[in-house]
Amino acid sequence: MEFIRQWTLFTMIGSNLLIERCFATIELLADEAKSLRLEDIAERLDLPTSAVHRLLTTLCLIGWVEQDSKTGFYRLTLRLAILGQRFMVATEIPDICQCIVDRLAQDSKELVRMATVKQDGLAWTACAQGAKAGLIYEPETTAEVPLPVTADGKAWLATLTAGAAAKVVLKNGFGQPGSYGPNAVRTIEAVMRERELTREQGWALAVDEAELGVTSIAAAIRPNDGPAIGTVSVAGPILRLSGGRILEISRLISVAADVLATLWPLRNIQASRQRSVAQALISTEPARGLDSLLVRHH
Fold first, then answer.
1. According to the model, what pLDDT value does residue 101 have?
2. Long-range CB contact pairs, 266-272, < 8 A, 24+
3. Which residues pair with residue 36 across a beta bridge?
4. Which terminus in the chain has less CB density within 10 A, N or C?
């Protein structure tokens, strides 16, 4: 009996390890969004080449990964993207939140993005470009939000305890040196200082951090002042976003965050009703700002 118990435990541990490695492989290929050599994948995952080859062979067989017949490189199929899109549609996040994101872009005349909380980080889920001429900020498309160097990341970290914030940052890392702007935060001490400042003023600011020459301002989305379920931000060139303009935009963002918290589709309110409310607010106040949307809804 003891042998059977130990063997069962060993099998469970082995299965969990295999699952973790499969997801690590999928996450790596998703982050890169390009084809990678077997050897590069093994090196990045710090696993034996033979083990990674077995994982990739299995993932190819079940349709998550494909191998280029000419180069032998591996890349994700569209299966993950399709599942993600199906999930987003089912939650009705795009339908309900996009109109608020669009309105904030219209009022700020800059790039607006919304991110949602995912276990130990943030992922971009909606965006709208409000700049129509001149310098237009178009960031590189990434799935995950770099926490220490973005206003969105700072806004979310400020809603966590100091211990939880430090743990999340250390788990996600600070990125490669030189991959961000000159003011990028590189230490836990700096993260804690930014966390306290964000908590005091109610919104987060990042200047020359994620990218050189870019300012971003963000606020957390907190239904009923509870745990944050996401963030909303405005980003643009420093030439336009500086001085008093930052305070003006921070006020718009704070209002947008309150509206999004009120309409958030994952709360215990019928999603179709929330979507109707959001669309009605926008259609009946075409020439007024986000302030009017919040007042009318309440």
1. 92
2. 266/91, 266/93, 266/229, 267/223, 271/91, 271/92, 271/96, 272/92
3. 74
4. N
